[in-house]
Design a protein that fits this description.
Elements lengths: L4 E2 L2 E2 L2 E4 L1 H18 L1 E6 L9 H4 L5 E4 L2 H11 L2 E5 L5 H7 L5 E4 L2 H13 L3 E5 L39 E3 L8 H15 L8 E3 L13 H14 L4 E4 L3 H4 L3 E4 L2 E7 L2 E6 L4
Parallel strand pairs: 4-5, 4-11, 5-6, 6-7, 7-8, 8-9, 9-10, 10-11
Antiparallel strand pairs: 1-2, 3-12, 13-14
Length: 274
């Protein structure tokens, strides 16, 4: 029946294997230390705050896409809190000032509207850029670099006079991608926005780096980041993986409530879906 007790818990629930999680965290730690980059937890992909005390030992902080994610990271992770939103409302912006350390804006208009107040409150300010370099196939509607995307400022819409207001630049164009996808993207970021990089303190490379997946070339990633850092020694490099933390670390435990059959096809109805 639904909600059946298993190992003292009512289904459905997620079971995370701590040893598998630690395996992933050690890979992330290797990248962070050898490439001298900062790695943050993207909470929109993994926000099981019961394991935050463990993750806190390996990571610099969290990222959020809104007020309540930012509050979760601030209160439960207790390290840096970075926030990006396609557009902030006045009410949300005021709330985020309580929790955020870095605030990233999506457009020059949002920078002009909020950046000065954010900096006056001691926050670091960034702008999301769009390198117009697609690495995803068959998912144009989800591709931040597809023509007409609302996400990130293209070079054609970049306002150079705003650079003096920025602490950093941000891009997020990958999805469960390889280090070679990042290499292509970084080359395009450098080609389009490279002249601005010496004038900011950090470059946030967003998420989508599935470095804990079997076959991912971790050594290539480390070499890529180190090479980029040599060209721009002024930059702190930041990454925001999400799926990489929980990748193949556990299970969804459910109970079969019923089994139905139609034309010889049997379907198990479980207390999570079917």
């Amino acid at each position: 029946m639904a909600g059946e007790k298993k190992a003292g818990f009512s289904t459905p629930y997620f079971l995370v294997d701590e040893n598998r999680l630690l395996h992933n965290l050690e890979i992330l730690k290797q990248v962070s230390q050898q490439a001298e980059c900062k790695i943050l937890l993207a909470q929109k992909a993994f926000s099981m705050f019961s394991v935050y005390p463990l993750l806190r030992k390996y990571l610099a902080g969290t990222t959020a896409s809104g007020l309540y994610e930012a509050r979760l990271g601030y209160e439960e992770f207790e390290k840096e809190t970075h926030v990006f939103s396609p557009a902030y409302t006045e009410e949300e912006f005021q709330g985020l000032l309580q929790y955020a350390d870095h605030m990233i804006f999506n457009s020059p208009k949002q920078v002009r509207k909020f950046a000065q107040r954010a900096k006056a409150a001691g926050k670091e300010v960034g702008l999301r850029v769009n390198p117009e370099c697609s690495t995803q196939e068959g998912h144009a509607i989800y591709d931040p670099c597809s023509p007409g995307s609302r996400l990130g400022t293209t070079l054609g819409n970049f306002e150079e006079e705003l650079v003096s207001m920025l602490d950093g630049l941000h891009f997020h164009t990958l999805c469960e991608s390889t280090s070679y996808d990042l290499e292509r993207t970084l080359a395009e970021v450098e080609r389009r926005f490279g002249r601005f990089l010496p004038h900011v303190k950090w470059l946030n490379m967003g998420g989508g780096h599935l470095m804990t997946r079997k076959g991912y070339d971790v050594e290539h990633l480390i070499a890529l980041l180190k090479g980029f850092k040599e060209r721009y020694p002024n930059l702190e490099l930041i990454m925001e993986p999400g799926s990489a933390f929980a990748w193949q670390t556990g299970f969804l435990l459910t109970t079969v409530v019923d089994i139905v059959e139609n034309h010889g096809i049997k379907t198990a109805i479980i207390d999570a879906s079917f």
